[in-house]
Design brief:
Rossmann fold; 231 residues; alpha/beta; six-stranded mixed β-sheet
Length: 231
């Protein structure tokens, strides 16, 4: 599915990624965790093409990372900071993205719009949306177009409890349909409940990638994380 080999990235004299090695298999809901500055966002931005790594290779479904449409259609990225066209409606934007992915599943789109309580907001300019509404809109798009992998950076930020529950149900459906999730978060308790695997990034390297049930046992993910940080 997603394979990262010897990924390195630095800014000036500061090295952020120091040879990241990670193989995410189909059907994983991967909780990608690490302390501030560990390199999580840099990793996500390298996978999605926002950044160009200094070294290393990235492939999704055997397709090597490039600026090609074929590579980009393998994933949908939900960033933490969402930039939008403020004067167009959410509905028009969703339809535009669906066309980019050659997707015309209108009924599926309507289903997720309803599930996330966005019926009225969809026809309003996106510049009027709250932070949480923007995240819900991105989730609607991701689950509608149904790509091989959805990559998320803190997607639960700003979501109300009902939307979090909807998010969990949507992920379950997405995985049952053959999807894969790469889910970066600081919320270890949420990662433990939603994800089936965890990868811990420390000092620009993956120090653990394992099934959560095997890692946690009678402990919590928070306890394991702190042990790995030598705290």
């Amino acid at each position: 599915m997603l394979k990262i080999t010897n990924l390195k990235k630095g800014y000036g004299s500061k090295q952020i990624l120091n040879g990241v090695e990670l193989h995410v298999k189909k059907g994983e809901i991967l909780g990608f965790v690490g302390s501030n500055g560990a390199g999580k966002t840099t990793t996500l931005n390298s996978i999605t093409g926002i950044l160009e790594p200094d070294e290393g290779t990235i492939t999704i479904n055997g397709i090597i990372k490039s600026g090609s449409t074929k590579y980009k259609k393998q994933f949908f990225f939900i960033p933490d900071t969402i930039h939008v066209f403020k004067n167009i409606s959410g509905f028009d934007w969703i339809r535009f993205v669906m066309k980019l992915y050659d997707n015309d599943q209108t009924e599926r789109m309507k289903h997720f719009i309803t599930q996330f309580d966005m019926e009225e907001a969809m026809y309003k300019p996106m510049g009027t949306y709250s932070y949480g509404m923007l995240h819900k809109m991105m989730l609607i798009v991701g689950f509608t177009i149904n790509p091989p992998i959805i990559i998320m950076d803190e997607p639960l930020n700003g979501l109300d409890p009902k939307s979090v529950l909807t998010f969990k149900k949507a992920i379950k459906l997405y995985i049952e349909e053959g999807g894969t999730v790469f889910f970066s978060t600081h919320l270890l308790d949420i990662a433990e409940k939603i994800c089936n695997t965890v990868a811990i990034l420390k000092d620009g390297k993956i120090i653990l990638h394992e099934e959560i049930d095997k890692v946690v046992g009678e402990n919590t993910l928070e306890t394991i994380f702190m042990e790995k940080q030598n705290v």
